[in-house]
Amino acid sequence: MLKINLQYDWERFHANYCVNIKPGMTTLLGGSGEGKSTLLHLLGGYLEGRGELYFHEASLLSLPAYERPISTLFQSDNLFPQLTVWQNVAIGVSPSLSLNREQKEKVSWALEKTQLVDKVKRFPQALSGGQAQRVAIARALVRKKPILLLDEPFSALDPALREEMLYLVNEVTDELGLTTLLISHLPQEACLVGGRVILIEQGEVIAHEPVSVLSQPEPHALFSNYLGVGVSSRSTI
Ligand SMILES: Nc1ncnc2c1ncn2[C@@H]1O[C@H](COP(=O)(O)OP(=O)(O)OP(=O)(O)O)[C@@H](O)[C@H]1O
After folding, report:
1. What is the pLDDT, as a whole number, of residue 237?
2. Residue 42, SS3 per DSSP
3. Residue-wise pLDDT tens digits, 79-111
4. Which residue, judged by its Cα, is nearest atom 28 of ligand 1?
């Protein structure tokens, strides 16, 4: 269980997040500027919050980003153009790229998971957008951290590829028992990955429900406010 009770103040924005998150997929929904990224940055250790943050009863708050049991995937997770696919993943384990056998096995495992085994010698410029994103996912996976934070990493991909990436994230979350938090602007993405949804408004978690809340004939009042209309009438991904 990830126990969050965190506060943070931007100049004109006060955030106060209070929620307990179980392993599995959780999608963070909310309008623009409501505080989704701020929460992920606090969890990842990229912003210094006040309050409490526990994972399996261990406090994470005083840990720097690199010591937290967390991998973060951002939209701008660029690959190193001068490194091959294998090296771009291996750098997630060891920045010097000198890996021992166990570390090499980790890299092979992540490349297999992301179906990149036949692309290991390619350079990023010879990859499609989806393949490049898979390399970024492999680099996040290779760190083998139990919490995965996804700050709209797939929003630049076309709908079919985005769907493919979401299936992949869902699959590894299940298989590895990860606690995965995905920021999305599309309620349909939450329906696709399943699990639970959190609604963030003005820097607070105002609802935390199973994803089925989005497809019920009578949606949860708070979610229907956010959606404006029923989910089913919105565009599909
Ligand atoms: N660098 C910053 N300096 C000052 N205020 C900021 C900064 N970043 C964010 N904020 C404030 O925090 C609020 C929440 O921002 P945040 O990026 O967390 O929202 P979001 O829900 O992720 O938005 P979006 O969906 O548009 O990415 C914003 O409305 C803004 O007022």
Report:
1. 43
2. helix
3. 999 999 999 999 989 889 999 999 999 999 999
4. 33
Q: Is the CB of 13 under 6 A from ligand 1?
A: yes
pLDDT at position 144? 84
Could you please state the CATH topology (level 3) that the domain comprising 2-184 is classified under: Rossmann fold (3.40.50)
Using a 6 Å cutoff on CB, does residue 9 contact ligand 1? no
Q: What is the pLDDT of residue 77?
A: 66
Predicted local distance difference test score (pLDDT) of residue 227: 79
Token reading at 127:
């990859």
ipTM: 0.97
| Pair type for strands 70-74 and 2-10 | unpaired
Nearest to 89 by CA among 155, 130, 133: 133
d(CA 110, CA 88): 12
For residue 152, give the ligand 1 atom closest to its CA.
27
Ligand 1 proximity of 167 Cβ (cutoff 6 Å): no
- 75: Cβ below 6 Å to ligand 1? no
User: In angstroms, what is the span from residue 119 Cα to ligand 1's centroid?
Assistant: 37
Whether the pLDDT of residue 232 is over 50: the answer is no
CA of 181 to the centre of ligand 1 (A): 18
Look at residue 236 and tell me whether its pLDDT is greater than 90: no
Tokens of 80: 């190193």
Q: Which of 9, 36, 40, 198 to mutate to test the pocket of ligand 1 (most atoms within 8 A of CB)?
A: 36
The DSSP bridge pattern shows strands 204-210 and 196-201 to be: antiparallel
The residues that bridge with 105 in the sheet, in sequence order, are: none
Q: What is the mean pLDDT of residues 64-76?
A: 89
